[in-house]
């Protein structure tokens, strides 16, 4: 840990008279040298970041960072050996002056002595293991650079601060505190109703859109300024250089780094930035979706069987609402049998189930492996609402559904083994997602095409989906012609299926229709 900065804020009376934000107390003094007593960080606070993540919180939420993570401008940060997703987050840091306990939004700014720049680095390789606490993913030595200099909080408008971040000299983030979901004064007031904010404590107020991954050799700079204030005060540029670490993590001591495509997309900011294909778009064009929507599952199943694929039916599930049709790409979620110690470690917090429903995209179908266990729910109305809001095509689970009628009213197609009132902990532990699973006796991989109707649900390998759809459409047309011949009085023998003579008649009909 390196000392961050050492300064004193004690503005004189004349300086205070230059701003309309004169506090109730004429002067407050805060001297920082090295480590703050507390570092409190906000999860999501900027509208741009929330829109990028596809979720906007109703209230602010927080986590702590250790004071040993603090570093000064000009320092280096190590990306540990064996990891790949070290991400920067430029932020506005508030330094508390006068202690705050149960203060109002109107007086909250009186308790902020200084504003400066911060970089809330995070290692996404460890994020899933932390389940929202961020102890390991954001608590490493050097993971909280601060500085280099203070801006007197009493001389600036808290809603008119500008934050900018550069990576290797290229602007990566630019936003203002006026675009925050939760104003800075709300963050101070909210925290003060739970705990005492003491002199020297630091609040990291969240990052806007543009946060992404950096690699060894990259140089990250963060600056906070107040361009509309007198003198346009600035923190100066907080400079951090990324270097390659030589030490990794010991599996005998704790969990190891692990990444998946969801973590990659969130670390880089998008699937495109991470170099990942748009699964839904690449596997299922609008033209192919239209074809599969027109063809019944029974017809598609017959074509898959002709190609030697007999084990592609998700058995034991039925449409919650008759007449439902789903066509989409699979986003998979796996539950394992409940074990009390594992549920304690994996069942709460931001678990695999919640992460899946937060990460589902338009046109995707959440497919849940519940081992055919009907004695517990695998989702309820809140998660169904979340999936529908994000544009999911539907949900398939070989387990139960809680809040059964409420889920049906949401209007999202759900195929399930039935209703059950119990929560996950009775039978299941939410374990992992975006991996190959077994649902209703069928193997399902992320990106597989899922089609369901009143006959059931099938899995189509993307590589042959176009071929299967075209063949099924042609077969449906032929079957309709055969049905007309039977209705006209012709015997079934030789006609269904058509022999050579009837096939010739059908082709002639197609040619002249």
UniProtKB/TrEMBL annotation:
Does Isomerase appear among the keywords?
A: yes
Binding-site positions, substrate: 380-383, 402
**Start and end of every Fumarylacetoacetase-like C-terminal domain?**
38-242
Would I find Membrane among this entry's keywords? no
Q: Name one Pfam family in it.
A: RraA-like
The alphabetical list of record keywords is: Isomerase, Magnesium, Metal-binding
Q: According to its UniProt record, which cofactors does this protein need?
A: Mg(2+)
An example Gene Ontology molecular-function term: isomerase activity
Domain of life of the native organism: Bacteria
Q: Which residues bind Mg(2+)?
A: 403
The protein's name is Putative 2-hydroxyhepta-2,4-diene-1,7-dioate isomerase/5-carboxymethyl-2-oxo-hex-3-ene-1,7-dioate decarboxylase
Please tell me the species this chain comes from. Answer: Gordonia rhizosphera NBRC 16068
The lineage is: Bacteria, Bacillati, Actinomycetota, Actinomycetes, Mycobacteriales
